[in-house]
Design goal:
Length: about 525
């Protein structure tokens, strides 16, 4: 039995695989092949047999689980076409289709051929799966002394390319040694040289075009085969004509490549001009934007200056309005704690009789009340739980001062189990500023016998042994009290005073308590 491997030029052709020739025409050969191929999911099996008339038949079978015959065709024997000596065929050539296959043959010769070790070391440094570059690879083939090298050097200078030879220069020192070895070893040497050259080509093609001066599988053997070949009917003249035609085609392609490069340069130049024009336009737009931003910055600075002036003017006007409002309230007093509905819808009449009675005022006073009413309350406050204050306006500031001083002198005043308090009527901004001092006043009144008073508009006056002290800010008053140890026993960290100084307002604690109750 003989086993031959062969490949076809077409990838989809059936003429590749293994050819098994049974010299004894045994019927078990096909059965054994099917058993060997059971491990494969699908395969094709082509058998040849001769009938009683001497005709040869080809049966093509496809196996995928179960086998099925695709077709059966009669084969007519013909005389084989003579092959050119350089062409490899399945009957007279050992072709290495893998890098490992060529290495394995040389590896077996390591003990008898010392040079093999250096070749295998070079092969181990190759990257077989190196990525291919984008530049073209041009191979120049032909007979010796036909101008290949001259053409290769001309192409190299014209395309600014790399020039390589096969086998590569790293193996050329061993060519003479392997040319004297058997055919299988020779072909393994040259095949390995082609694989090493292919790695170098893949690397260089990433940088520039690559020109290859001949791909030699076995130059010396081919030359010898050509000289000894029995196929002398192939004319050298035809070969030279074919070679010249190939060179002319290559020259034409190079001219086309030059033309394409010129067109590419022209298009690139036009595109660059367009890009430069766009950049100039964008630069002009950016300059315009920068000018606009500078103008806006100038306008913003002017507006900020105007705004600052307006804010100062607004502050002065607000202070003046607040002063005018407080001046308009000079004849007013506020009464706190007066129960609701005691006035019977006539507050002026009620107060005219109630004030002299509750304050025991002299009868000689006129007590002219211009107007009196309850203060407005927020819609969010439950009126049933809240007693609104009463605002009273007198015709004379003298009467107002008499009533207010008398009420302060008789404090505390009670009416129907309610504590009645009297105070001046101030604007809302003054009331807010004066409220900041109330917690400290309560602490001083609770912990000491020191006399205090709130001076208009919102200043704390403390009467001490060394003389009165006036403070316009709460933190200054607290710092003075702490530094002079006026309230030594007070835990400042646990009182509301510390939080008041930090937050600038007493609303936080009172507001939280109201929210919890709701």
């Amino acid at each position: 039995m003989r086993l031959l491997s062969f490949y076809s030029d077409s990838y989809t052709s059936l003429e590749k695989g293994f050819l098994v020739q049974d010299l004894h025409s045994s019927s078990e050969t096909e059965h054994l092949l099917k058993c060997l191929l059971l491990e494969h999911e699908q395969y094709y099996l082509c058998t040849y047999d001769k009938d009683s008339d001497g005709c040869i038949w080809q049966s093509l079978n496809y196996f995928r689980g179960k086998g099925s015959e695709i077709r059966r065709t009669r084969i007519l024997p013909v005389k084989g076409v003579p092959l050119y000596p350089y062409i490899l065929n399945s009957s007279n050539s050992a072709v290495f289709y893998t890098f490992a296959g060529a290495c394995s043959v040389l590896r077996e010769c390591k003990e008898i051929i010392p040079e093999v070790k250096g070749i295998l070391d070079l092969a181990g440094q190759c990257t077989i799966k190196a990525p291919k570059g984008d530049f073209p690879v041009i191979v120049i083939e032909g007979l010796d002394a036909t101008g290949k090298s001259t053409l290769c050097h001309a192409l190299k200078d014209r395309l600014n390319a790399f020039l390589l030879k096969s086998p590569p220069s790293c193996l050329s020192q061993w060519r003479k040694t392997f040319d004297e070895e058997p055919t299988l070893i020779k072909r393994a040497f040259y095949a390995l040289g082609n694989y090493i050259a292919a790695c170098e080509i893949a690397t260089l093609s990433c940088k520039a075009p690559v020109i290859i001066d001949r791909v030699k599988f076995l130059s010396s053997v081919n030359s010898m085969s050509f000289s000894k070949s029995s196929h002398q009917d192939i004319s050298l003249k035809k070969e030279l004509q074919t070679l010249l035609s190939t060179i002319q085609d290559l020259s034409t392609k190079i001219d086309k490549l030059d033309l394409n490069l010129e067109n590419f340069k022209e298009k690139s130049s036009q595109q660059m001009e367009t890009i430069h024009l766009d950049l100039r336009q964008q630069k002009e737009q950016i300059n315009g934007i920068e000018t606009s931003l500078n103008d806006m910055d100038s306008r913003i600075q002017v507006n900020e200056h105007n705004l600052e002036s307006l804010l100062k003017q607004n502050s002065l006007l607000s202070a003046k309005i607040d002063d005018l409002e407080n001046r308009s309230r000079r004849n007013n007093i506020r009464i706190f704690g007066l129960p609701e509905n005691v006035e019977d819808n006539n507050m002026e009449k009620f107060l005219t009789s109630w004030l002299p009675e509750i304050l025991q005022l002299p009868e000689a006073l006129s007590y002219g009340i211009e107007r009196a009413h309850r203060s407005l309350s927020s819609s969010k406050i439950n009126k049933a739980d809240t007693t609104r204050s009463v605002i009273v306006r007198f015709l004379s500031s003298y009467d107002k001062e008499i009533v207010l001083k008398t009420a302060w002198s008789k404090s505390p005043i009670k009416f129907k189990d309610n504590v009645i308090q009297f105070d001046n009527d101030y604007s809302s901004s003054v009331i807010a500023r004066r409220k900041l001092f109330l917690p400290l006043l309560k602490e001083l009144k609770k912990e000491t016998q020191i006399k205090t008073h709130l001076v208009f508009p919102a200043k704390l006056k403390i009467f001490l042994q060394g003389g009165p002290k006036i403070f316009d800010k709460l933190e200054k008053a607290i710092a003075y009290i702490k530094s002079n140890k006026i309230l030594d026993d007070m835990d400042w960290a646990s009182t509301n005073l510390k939080r008041l100084v930090e937050n600038g307002s007493w609303k936080s604690l009172d507001h939280k308590k109201k929210l919890k109750k709701k």
